[in-house]
Amino acid sequence: MFMRKHCPICGSCNHIQFAVIDHRNLVACRECSLVFANSFDEEELVKCYSQNYYSSPHDPRIQAWIDRNRPTWAGVVADISRAKSPVANLLDIGAGTGGFLEVFRQYSPATKLYAIESSPAARQNLVERFPSLVFCGETAEGITAAAGQFECVTLLQCLEHVYDPLRVCSGIYRVLNPGGVLLITVPNRYSYKVLLKKTAEANCFGNKTHLQFFSLRTLRRLLAEAGFQEANRITRFGGSAETGVMAAMQCLVRKVGISTEIRVLVRKQP
Hints:
Layout: E1 2-3, E2 15-21, E3 24-29, E4 35-40, H1 42-52, H2 60-83, E5 89-93, H3 99-107, E6 112-116, H4 120-129, E7 134-135, E8 150-156, H5 165-175, E9 176-187, H6 192-197, E10 212-213, H7 216-226, E11 231-233, H8 244-256, E12 261-267
Parallel strand pairs: 5-6, 5-8, 6-7, 8-9
Antiparallel strand pairs: 1-4, 2-3, 3-4, 4-10, 9-12, 11-12
Helix pairs in contact: 2-3, 5-7
């Protein structure tokens, strides 16, 4: 059983009980309001990853996940291109299936791609599909790259899984060059689905591999603690698989702060 006393953002030990969900005990920090798992079963966590994601390099769920999420990744690529273009090199932390890297390579074939991925099965799949891909460590907390090496870092639906989010973001700040951009997506603990389903919502509290549960406020606090200044939430129309009326409704819930995903772009100051 993994246990931690300190809030992974502000370091406070002052927290209150929030919920017990499956193998995780969740608390809310009284200082910064982050909800996080202060204890969880590491063996159960490993089992959940195999069940929920992929158990081998050729798991059929990998291609299914890529096909399903391609429009969303294209939206992330568009957000990056608005902030910085061209991009000479990009690090994707928690690269997973490689779907985002595939879409980004199609957009910018000249960009040198780097990745971090903790799953051995996922890493093998990535090596087979991207022979020139360079790995910068096996865990998000252990970035092995030179200071100021990257123009862009992406952290897509990953930060909620890591053990030490402040260490991850501080490492990203170190490896970004001045003027470089970081794009983060995380589940929104205040989404309309969470408001309706509470802790049963599958893509936030209900996911057994999630260890942190962010609001825009706590995500901005985390980034500030890591050294970043202004974090801008992306609320534009589009950038997902939704079209027509559903895309308009999605844009509306983004603007009022209850979308299922928080998408933030932050630039390292020169």
